[in-house]
Write a structure and sequence with these properties.
Blueprint lengths: L4 H29 L12 H12 L8 H28 L7 H31 L12 H12 L8 H29 L9 H30 L8 H12 L8 H30 L1
């Protein structure tokens, strides 16, 4: 079981953080998708948005799209941690390297992310569309499977891969985050004179996971806006170039950062819960296997 400690830790962390932070993710998606058109609800602020959703659909409305988010996050995090370390071990055994550890970590993270995205992109399309079923319109999708089947039937299989290109750019986000976290972690363990496989304390884990996430989210946030808008069933774009052109023309540079505040507010507790759970579950699995 010990060889699956990264898979089990990542999977458990993904589930825990997604349940805790989904309402924040819902608000981030709605702000990122809002291009100012009259067909969408116009919110004065995040609190007003949350109030409007609760008044219309109750507190369960804040959990629209939870199922695909739960499945996608758990699978992505579980596979990411496991694949990352498998690929890293493979490269180390065969001395495959660029000569720069930071570059190696980024490339490893991107390769891992691309492989996972191929399997999970349809889940993210369903998540986006379920989150963007507004209170003032008829319900189009009844759940994850219904959404995927409806999209593939009405728009074709290719529609399940809308947002794939910015998603590829998004693998850089995960790579930067994971690289920074590992660098912070390694430096901390060296400073304390502890072995590289030692488990970080919860405080260190909180600080380094939060810091790595804020940096990576801020750098790459425009890709999240682009992916959300391409996957949105309310808007039609002729590819990513058309989307970028229209966003800049109608909203300026600010349009590429809509939802950034909520993105960071969401990501912070999300990644903290994920990494703390990941480190502690790994510790439990390792000692349980001995």
């Amino acid at each position: 079981m010990e060889k699956y400690e990264h898979l089990i830790g990542g999977f458990t962390g993904g589930i825990t953080s997604t349940i805790a932070c989904h309402p924040l993710d819902l608000l981030r998606i709605r702000y990122s998708a809002n291009d100012g058109s009259c067909q969408r609800p116009q919110y004065r602020n995040y609190w007003h948005a949350a109030q409007s959703i609760v008044q219309s659909r109750g507190y369960k409305g804040l959990y629209q799209g939870l199922a695909p988010n739960l499945i996608g996050s758990a699978v992505s995090w579980g596979l990411y941690f496991q694949f990352y370390h498998v690929i890293k071990s493979f490269c180390c055994e065969r001395t495959i390297s660029t000569g720069a550890e930071s570059v190696d970590n980024v490339l490893l993270g991107m390769v891992t992310g691309v492989g996972i995205l191929i399997f999970t992109n349809p889940i993210w399309v369903a998540k986006t569309r379920l989150c963007l079923q507004y209170e003032n319109e008829r319900t189009k999708y009844r759940g994850l499977l219904n959404c995927i089947s409806t999209v593939s039937r009405d728009e074709g299989i290719a529609a399940l891969y809308k947002g794939f290109t910015p998603g590829l750019i998004g693998t850089l986000h995960g790579a930067i985050q994971f690289m920074l976290y590992n660098r912070f972690k390694d430096n901390r363990l060296k400073h304390l004179g502890l072995p590289a496989d030692h488990t970080l304390g919860s405080v260190d884990c909180l600080v380094y996971s939060a810091l790595s996430k804020v940096i990576s989210t801020t750098i790459t946030f425009p890709y999240q806006v682009q992916r959300t808008r391409l996957q949105d069933h309310h808007a039609k774009y002729n590819g990513i170039c058309d989307l970028i052109s229209k966003t800049y023309r109608m909203e300026g540079l600010r349009g590429f950062y809509k939802g950034l505040l909520m993105g960071n507010l969401r990501q912070l507790p999300n990644v903290i819960v994920t990494y703390v759970t990941y480190e502690n579950v790994r510790y439990f699995v390792r000692h349980f296997s001995q």
